[in-house]
Design goal:
The chain is α+β, with helices and mostly antiparallel strands. It has helices at 19-30, 40-47, 62-65, 121-132, 135-141, 147-158, 216-231, 247-255; strands spanning 107-109, 112-118, 164-171, 174-183, 200-206, 237-240, 259-266, 269-277. Strands 1-2-3-4-5-6-8-7 form an 8-stranded mixed β-sheet, with helices on both faces. It is globular.
């Protein structure tokens, strides 16, 4: 469900790691070896005759589409809407692939109380489509156009098997960002890096110009990664794949406790594989 991100602060600088932190990251990098055991969910899909390879069923493959967000102050982006926080959309049991994102609850951040609310197309399409038509966002997500374009992207996930959950990011009661929380190990991205069972991926865009360029991306990335690690006990790490040329985005991930793991060649970009490890959570 990667990111300058409409989420990140173009002015973000990252402090150098200490020798202790660097050695810890090196040890974690050394563990990035391919686990050849198929996840139970994937075995179950094969057993029921579901079509497609991991990442292809239910929604467009994230690595194949190379969706990402932008930090720039793009013309025409929406200033934060005054809409109130929507109630979580009802999800089927398929959402168990991500341990029921709707039930994760709020997180307290330096910017306020933040919560992920799964998308309801009938309620949220107009807002998300406006964000996707912001040139700063459209340059990376490639979903500009009539509402039907964004709707197809959303329904591809919502009508799938639950391996990707599109969400509104709600800050102090106001929807202000769009997220995709997805099973990276079941996604097309897994073809391009040594995925581990239950790796969880993040995609993010911040919708309003007023919310960009002031460090919100870093705060929210850390908060959402913490939510993943708090509520997905089987997930040892959170991953993302911003464009390698997107220095502000990479910097925001580093500031949010992610480490740079590798350069990855994806269909539409050369990406920086960013990883936040549960084992290094206390030091990064």
């Amino acid at each position: 469900m990667p990111p300058p991100d409409a989420s990140t602060d173009a002015g973000t600088e990252t402090a150098p790691e200490s020798a202790t932190e660097s050695s810890a990251a090196d040890r974690a990098d050394a563990q990035d070896t391919l686990d050849l055991r198929l996840p139970d969910e994937l075995i179950a899909l094969f057993g029921t005759g579901e079509p497609g390879e991991p990442g292809d069923a239910g929604h467009p493959g994230h690595a194949d589409e190379a969706r990402e967000t932008h930090t720039g102050e793009g013309e025409g982006a929406d200033v934060r809407t005054a809409e109130r926080a929507p109630a979580p959309a009802v999800r089927s049991s398929a959402d168990d692939l991500l341990d029921n994102v709707a039930d994760w609850g709020p997180a307290t951040t330096p910017a306020g109380v933040f919560q992920l609310v799964p998308v309801c197309v009938e309620r949220d399409l107009s807002l998300i489509s406006r964000w996707m038509n912001d040139p700063a966002v459209a340059a990376f997500w490639e979903l500009a156009g009539p509402d039907a374009v964004t709707e197809a992207h959303l329904r591809g996930q919502l009508d799938g098997d639950g391996r990707s959950v599109p969400c509104l990011g709600v800050l102090d009661g106001t929807p202000m960002s769009y997220w995709e929380i997805y099973r990276a190990d079941l996604d097309g991205l897994a073809r391009h890096y040594p995925a581990r069972p239950h790796d969880t991926g993040l995609h993010l865009l911040i919708g309003g110009v007023a919310d960009r360029g002031r460090g919100l991306g870093t705060s929210l990335l850390r908060a959402v990664a913490d939510l993943v690690l708090d509520h997905r006990a089987a997930s040892a790490r959170v991953v993302a794949e911003p464009d390698l040329r997107n220095t502000p985005s990479v910097s925001a991930f580093l500031s949010a406790g992610f480490r740079f793991s590798a350069e990855v060649d994806l269909p539409d970009k050369r990406a920086a594989l960013m990883v936040r490890d549960r084992a290094l959570r206390a030091v990064l």
